[in-house]
Amino acid sequence: MRSRFEIGKTRVVFGEGTVGQLAEELGDLGISRVLVVSDPGVMAAGLAESVETLLSGVSITYRIHDDVHPNPRASDVESAAEGARSMRAEGVVALGGGSAIDAAKAAAALAPGDSALEVLEGEEQYIQAPLPVVAIPTTAGSASEVTGWSVVTSVIGRSGSAGRPSTRSSPSPIRG
Q1: Which segments within 87-169 are labelled E, that is strand?
Q2: How far, in Å, CA of 47 to CA of 33, rounded?
Q3: Rounded Cα–Cα distance for residues 73 and 15 (Å)
Q4: What's the CA gap between 170 and 14, in Å, rounded?
Q5: How confident is the model at residue 2 (pLDDT cuts 50, 70, 90)?
Q6: Are 131 and 91 in contact (CB under 8 A)?
Q7: CA-based end-to-end distance of the chain
Q8: Residue 140: CB partners within 8 Å, gap ≥ 6?
Q9: What confidence tens digit (pLDDT) does each residue in 43-87 have?
Q10: Is 146 left (phi over 0), alpha (psi -120 to 50) or beta?
């Protein structure tokens, strides 16, 4: 049984088999080109295979960025944002736990422009509207899928956050 509810502008869809609605959710957002952001553990566990099968079965072009570290680094976000730019992604799918979801949300905010990640630190610092994000959490605990914030660690060990105070989530945690 699938259920759905909304918190502000956040649509939460949950229940057994819900991932099967991915193409429909992306279609509702008008997305035909998507970057999938994940991590090596999710990939090794084979959890991305169903997402790849779903996207391959419809006319959605996708690329997988699976190099997100635990407690995502600025370089993870910048690399994912560049991947989204290079494929002209219209949205981002986050597949994984809080780290993958935080990296995906930050990359979605960074991808439309050419500014540095540090410019986004704080509340509502977007230069251009972020790409829509669809989050598929594979763990319970961080609740990153229902917040508009991302936590990213810089190379000097300082963490920063960026986002919006209102809750956002699947299908688009930080969409403007």
Answers
A1: 91-96, 122-123, 133-137, 148-153, 159-164
A2: 20
A3: 31
A4: 10
A5: low
A6: yes
A7: 30
A8: none
A9: 999 999 999 999 998 989 999 999 999 999 999 999 999 999 999
A10: alpha
Closest CA to 35 of 98, 97, 126, 110: 110
**3-class SS of residue 17:** coil
Which domains, from first to last, does the chain contain? 10-164 (3.40.50.1970)
Among the listed residues 149, 115, 114, the one whose alpha carbon sits nearest the alpha carbon of residue 133: 149
3-state secondary structure (DSSP) of residue 94 = strand
Contacts of the segment 71-75: beta carbons below 8 A, 24+ positions apart: 71/99, 71/151, 71/153, 71/159, 72/99, 72/100, 72/102, 72/103, 72/106, 72/150, 72/151, 72/152, 72/153, 73/152, 73/153, 73/154, 73/155, 74/117, 74/152, 74/153, 74/154, 74/155, 75/155
Which residue matches tokens 């699976």? 66
For 114, residues 6+ apart whose C-beta sits below 8 A from its C-beta are none
Extract the tokens encoding 29.
């957002």
